Amino acid sequence: MAGRIPSAWFDELYARADIVSVVSSYVPLRKDGRRYWGLCPFHNEKTPSFSVSADLNLYYCFGCKAGGNVVQFVMEMERVSYVEAAKLLADRIHLPLPEIQEDPDYEKRRSQRERLLNANREAARFYHDRLWTPEGKAVLDYLHRRGLDDGIIRRFGLGASGEKWDDLTSFLQEKGYTQEELGLAGLSVVKPDSAFDMFRARAMFPIVDQYGNVLGFGGRAMGDAKPKYLNTSDTPVFNKRKGVYAINLLRKVRDLKRVLLVEGYMDVVAISQAGVMGAVATLGTSLTNEQARLLKRYAPEVHLAYDGDEAGQHAIERGLDIFQAEGVPAKVLYFPDGLDPDEFIRQRGLDAFLAIKPMSPTAFRMQRLRRKNDLETQEGRTEYAKGCAALLKKVADPVDLENYLELLSVQTGFSRDVLIAQIGQSAKQQENAHNPTPQRETISAKRAREAEGYRTEQTLLSLLATGKLPQGMVRAEDFSGETFRRIAQRLLQGDTPPAIVSDLDESEALRQAAAEAFSLLTETEKENAASIAADCLRNIRILRLQQEIQKITDLMKSAETPEMRTEALREVSSLSKELAQLKQQGR
Fold it and tell me: How far is CA 308 from the centre of its chain?
């Protein structure tokens, strides 16, 4: 985006686009104080936690933490790119598009990209048309044997590549595409003295992105050719790590409760024909972090429905780790008898498929452990109990933990107390789990200080965003975390909150941190910004002094000489005096 459209144009767009009007066209809002509130369009809720600030042109959900500027709201709702959302918004408010800044390299890349995408689209039509001819009969018969009807074949644009060496290559060259372009697109293999088709005698599955562009292909061999599935290699328009199969159809589904992630293209097509919505597949690779982040935009959670064999189950475990790392809620659909989703739905029907209850990650991992241990033996029960205890250490919900403990006790014969001891919890801790007290009363003093420091720095950052603080009062170095320091530095440079949030859209953590901090602003805080900021700075200094005193005190225990202990005591005394003075000022 930057370097193609002038940043000044985006600044004008942020200033002129009324976020309340834009959001209201999608979500009913009501005014309460300085903000507008409504039900969040990004997650299911009954009590409004979605807020819109007209002053800052920002939105933020206190429930799911979604937040951003007016362009990002349109981007999320329409599921288009940032630039496309900006253009939609500009058209709505009658803001002329700027002249694209001259960039010869950009123009060259754009022209090349358009040529490659056009070549892919022509190839998809060629393969699809070939499917209905005598040359495509073998592939069409295969698709019919797999239970696909002509309607679903057309919906997914499936096709057939011929057995000749250069059918597609010759066809596209006659259309004006060069061998170099066809090689770059991954459609042809280009040699010094020849070029021939990449895909031959295969059922063809076009890979289409969320904007309708054909990026590449997956080809399933009809005979004994290897590999059985051949996918387009990475090209200037296609990266198999960043997309998923059938994302173009996913975009059309509103209020999708979950995305169903399966292993293969045929799984997606077959279960879609059966009436299951929201199915996608990875592109011939293991699940990536980029794909997890992409799926997060389309539904509140993901269900993994991989094959029932050992390879598929192992891939589920890895996928759960990736979704957890990306903050995406995920569950598992387990298919018995080693079946894959396509086989299961063909053999047992849609009702049986829909009746499968999604398993939590913990329940799935416990099931995996059970299959690896013989519970008919004491040794097997012991190893299973130990393995499950390691998993249950990470279960935070007391009710879920109690359910898992009850199940584990029945399976192994070990008492609940023994299992709790193995998990590493004391009886008192477990009693607290049954009678939970507010988190503020149960977390350690260290974590309490960290939480207090975060809240204080967050408030200071929101005050800095008002532009009401005296120059030089706050520095980027006043913030301990790199995220807040980065945002503060942008504010100190004069950037507006909407502009900052737009530049942070590639990092979900940074974007959420900025949107949440900016959402804390109230009119009262703006009027008393300097006074409140002074309190925040003093509290930050107090917390840092307390941390430094604790650090030196801990080091004193390992001091090697009396002189070192004396010097440490002297430093602690000096810091303690400064700490007392700051606390007195606060009182």
Answer: 26
